[in-house]
Here is the input.
Amino acid sequence: GAVVSQHPSRVICKSGTSVKIECRSLDFQATTMFWYRQFPKQSLMLMATSNEGSKATYEQGVEKDKFLINHASLTLSTLTVTSAHPEDSSFYICSAGNGQGNSRAFFGQGTRLTVV
Amino acid sequence: KQEVTQIPAALSVPEGENLVLNCSFTDSAIYNLQWFRQDPGKGLTSLLLIQSSQREQTSGRLNASLDKSSGRSTLYIAASQPGDSATYLCAVITNQAGTALIFGKGTTLSVSS
Here is the structure.
């Protein structure tokens, strides 16, 4: 099956700094990638949809200036949490697909972000 | 707005039991439904994918059914093992353009030996 690699798996940063998370599709081209956030004991909530070569589409309530998404190639999308605060501490996970509604979604391993 | 609900939220069973996890969704116009497994602090492992035209999928001890008209899916786990302990998530895609999955909150399963 297709492989999606997410890095780093775990990061601890100081409040006010920025953190970049990478999501790569290793053996297929992903025209669309999705970024989710999961708080403890909650389900995954979509943050934004990342489309190669165009601006990301953010879900309601997600600050686009705080969560910067770049999808510069068909195999890489990045999520940068800018000026991170403790309330941004969460599990962030990406998924990739080929843009078809009936395709299986493949997920990265997730990134546990802790802001201290 | 599509909403996905999973019942029960948590389940504890002794090893060897057969069990059923339930998933319901409010909008029956889905394109596919996936069941995932998530271990604590880990990413998601896709277990089964059911296309909208299908009624069930099987993989080993797992069987997932889909009744689109009633907005329900079940995940059946046969002869449960301690290694099955994890959170099981149900998710649907509702847009042909391949928009994001909409997840339920999951069922946390604990299988004791």
Summary: The longest strand of chain B covers residues 44-51. The two ends of chain B are 41 Å apart (CA to CA).
